[in-house]
């Protein structure tokens, strides 16, 4: 895991507040040379790939202030009143250390360990590290991991990719034209079918039959169970018998089993069909 794009954060309970903050910046920002698609979204000078990563850093700074301040209770004045300071995380940590030198020696309070895990679960862009080795370790590692495949900071062995082993095995050339790639895919599919020694037969598509035209106006005389016992029907039919027959049968002797919708422009003849 340490050699992947989502390494383990480390044993937080054993860290000092200074180590805790520096480790977070090291993993989320690194050298600030990310080529991810979210780079620069917060501004050309922002090193953060997401505002939620920056917000978590701010909460960590304020948590450290609360633990290191000499007051045991009540509100304290924060050093980080200027949001612009958060865009320079190294300077922000230096400001904390200048105000509270003990940050370099005081280990995290036991309550701050679950606080950090909960902070990493907050809504927004998932953290790009595994904060704790627990039952959800696979979820920690897999969450939001595909964007790193497009970041030049990581090599191929460090990132997750969508294609499986079989698909990756088909990648043989750099910048191969899409048309040639699809030609290879088609030929491979043909070769696989021929190698299977299949038998000729009618395909499901070729054997498909046109459906029988539906009954547009179901009636009780043709469906005696829908409304009780069947009864003689006398419904005016619009259009001529020839029009009616021509739509659903080629045999003039075959009775039309239902009333048909009118043809455009036709008028009712007043005739009755049974």
From TrEMBL:
Name the UniProt record assigns to this protein: Fatty acid synthase beta subunit AflB /Fas1-like central domain-containing protein
GO CC annotation: fatty acid synthase complex
Domain of life of the native organism: Bacteria
GO BP terms: fatty acid biosynthetic process
Pfam family of the protein (one): Fas1-AflB-like_hel
GO terms assigned for molecular function: enoyl-[acyl-carrier-protein] reductase (NADH) activity; fatty acid synthase activity
Positions of region (Disordered): 200-220, 234-274
Domain Fatty acid synthase beta subunit AflB /Fas1-like central: from-to ranges: 4-182
InterPro entries: Fas1/AflB-like_central, Fatty_acid_synthase, Fungal_FAS
UniProt lineage: Bacteria, Bacillati, Actinomycetota, Actinomycetes, Mycobacteriales
Biased composition (Pro residues): 254-264
Keywords linked to the UniProt accession: Transferase
Keyword Transferase in annotation: yes
Gene3D superfamilies listed in its UniProt record: 1.20.930.70
């Amino acid at each position: 895991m340490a050699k992947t794009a989502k390494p383990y954060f480390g044993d937080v309970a054993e860290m000092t507040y200074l180590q805790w903050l520096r480790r977070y910046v090291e993993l989320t920002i690194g050298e600030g040379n990310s080529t991810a698609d979210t780079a620069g979204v917060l501004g050309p000078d922002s090193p953060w790939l997401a505002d939620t990563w920056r917000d978590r850093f701010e909460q960590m700074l304020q948590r450290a202030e609360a633990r290191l301040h000499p007051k045991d209770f009540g509100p304290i004045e924060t050093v980080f009143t200027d949001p612009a300071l958060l865009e320079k995380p190294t300077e922000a940590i230096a400001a904390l250390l200048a105000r509270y030198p003990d940050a370099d020696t005081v280990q995290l309070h036991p309550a701050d360990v679950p606080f950090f895990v909960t902070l990493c679960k907050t809504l927004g862009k998932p953290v790009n590290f595994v904060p704790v080795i627990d039952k959800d370790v696979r979820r920690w590692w897999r969450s939001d991991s595909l964007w790193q495949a497009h970041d030049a900071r990581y090599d191929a062995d460090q990132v997750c990719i969508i294609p499986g082993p079989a698909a990756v095995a088909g990648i043989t050339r750099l910048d191969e034209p899409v048309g040639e790639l699809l030609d290879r895919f088609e030929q491979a599919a043909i070769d696989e079918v021929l190698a299977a020694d299949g038998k000729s037969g009618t395909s499901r598509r070729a054997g498909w039959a046109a459906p029988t035209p539906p009954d547009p106006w179901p009636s009780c005389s043709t469906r005696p169970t829908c409304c009780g016992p069947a009864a003689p029907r006398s419904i005016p039919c619009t259009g001529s018998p020839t029009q009616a027959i021509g739509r659903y049968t080629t045999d003039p002797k075959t009775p039309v089993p239902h009333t048909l919708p009118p043809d455009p422009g036709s008028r009712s003849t007043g005739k009755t069909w049974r």
